[in-house]
Amino acid sequence: MGRRKKEELELKFNPIFEPLFFDNLDDPRYYQVYGGRGSGKSFGVSVAMVQLTYSKFKHRILYLRQTMTSSEDSTVADVRAAIEVLGKGADFREKQGVITNITTGATISFKGIRSTGTQTAKLKSLSGITTLVVEEAEEVESFEEFSKIDESIRVAGKPLKVILIYNPTSAISSWIHKEWFVGGQPNPERFHDTMYMHSTYLTNINNLNASVVQRYKDLERTNPIYYKNTILAEWTLETEGRLYAGWGMYPTFDEDGDTWYGLDFSYGGGDKTSMVKITYYQGVYYVQELFSVKGMGTKKTLEMMRLHRVPFNALIFADSAMPLLIQGIREGGYGQIRKAKKGNVEAGIKKMQDKDIVMIGDDTTDLYFQYMTFRRNKKDNKLPHEPDILAALRYGINSRRPLEKAQKAKPRRARRINGYI
C-alpha cells in the first residue's frame, strides 16, 4: 500500500457513532443515523459493522438499499475500506456478495429491496438476520415496505439492530419523519427503542480536507438555505413551488355557518373518493376532510357519508365527469347533490388561492398532506394531477357563493331508496 493510500485510510473515528458499537441484549432496536455532506455517517456505520462481526453472538449483518444495482458503488466499498482501516484484512473473505469473518463465522451481505425499478427482490434470507442496515433509507418508498422487512428481524437470544442511514428530506412527505420525529426533532416517545445520531461535517471536520470545509462554510453565507437543508441536513418544510400556503388549522370548529360539501369520485387505480365539509363563517372557509379512500364505489361512498353524518338534505357539489355516480348518490337519499362548477383547473386554483381557508383537524389528514405538498412540476412548471381531496375542496368552494348569515339546517331523516338505506 502506498503512503498516500495509507494516510487516506487513517481516519479519526466520530464519537457520535459510539452507540453502534454496543452489543447487549437490552440495546435499543432502532438507530437513526442521519446527517449531511461530509458527515462520515456511512463509513462510521461500516466500521461499527466490521467490529460487530467479532461479537460472541456471531451476527448476520445485511445491508439493504432500494435497488440491488446501487449497492456495489459505495456500500460494499465502505465495508472493504473499514476492514482495511482496522487492519483486519486477513480475517475476512469475500464471495458472491457476502463478506465473511472467518475467525467467527459472522457475515455481512448486501441486497436490494427491489431488483429493478418495479420488481421486488426475494429476501427469504432475512429469517436469520440480526442486524439490518438500510442505506439511503429516504429512498425506501413507504413505511409499509420498510415494515415488512423490519418485522422479519426477529432472531431470539441475540441483540437485534435496525440501522437507518439517510439524509433528511421533507418533514411532510417522509415516512421516517412521521415514525420517529416531531417537527423535525427526535420524538421523545421513541427514546425507549431508538438511538438518534445526527452528524454533520462539523462533527467530522478532522477527517475532511481543508478546502472542503471552507467550501461548506462559504455556502453558509452564499446559499444559506442549501447549507441548512443539505450540508447541515435538517428536516425541511418545502415551500418552493407550492400552490397553496397560508391556510390556518384548528383542531375543532363548532360555530354555525353556511355549510355544504365537496365530493370527488375515484376513477380507479390510485385515485381516491374524497369528501370535504365546508362551513363559511364570518368571511372564512372552515374545511374538514370527512374521508379520502381508494377504490370506493357508490355503495361504499354512501356508507361513508352516513358514517360521517352527512345530512340527507346536505348541499353537495360533486365531480361532474361522473354523472352516473352522482345519480347513484342521489338515489341513495342525498337529493341535493349536484354537478360542481369545475371549469379550468388553473383558474379554479387561482380562485382558491384568494380565499381565507382554515383546516379543521390535525396534520395526519390527507387534506393537510396534499395542501403541504401540492406543487408545480420543477422541470416544466406544469400542474401535476390534482390530489382528489383538493379537487373535492375546489369543487365545493368554487361552486357556490356563501351566505353571510346562514341558519343551521336541520338534518332530514333518510328515506329508504333502492336498498341503500
Short description:
Helix content is about 30%, strand content about 20%. It has helices spanning about 5-10, 40-50, 70-85, 145-150, 175-180, 210-220, 225-230, 300-305, 325-330, 345-355, 365-375, 390-400; strands at about 30-35, 60-65, 90-95, 100, 105-115, 130-135, 160-165, 180, 185, 195-200, 250, 260-265, 270-280, 285-295, 315-320, 335-340, 355-360.
CATH class of the largest domain: Alpha Beta
Residue windows where pLDDT falls under 50 for at least 5 positions: 1-9, 117-121, 413-421
Radius of gyration: 27 Å
- Kindly estimate the percentage of residues that lie in beta strands according to DSSP: 15-25%
Give the % helix: 25-40%
Structurally, the number of domains stands at 2
Question: How would you write the strand order of the largest sheet?
Answer: 3-4-5-2-6-7-1-10
**Cα shape:** elongated
Instruction: Output the helix-strand order.
Output: HEHEHEEEEHEHEEEHHEEEEHEHEHEHH
Relevant CATH superfamily of the largest domain: P-loop containing nucleotide triphosphate hydrolases
Structural class: alpha/beta
For the termini, the CA-CA separation is 81 Å
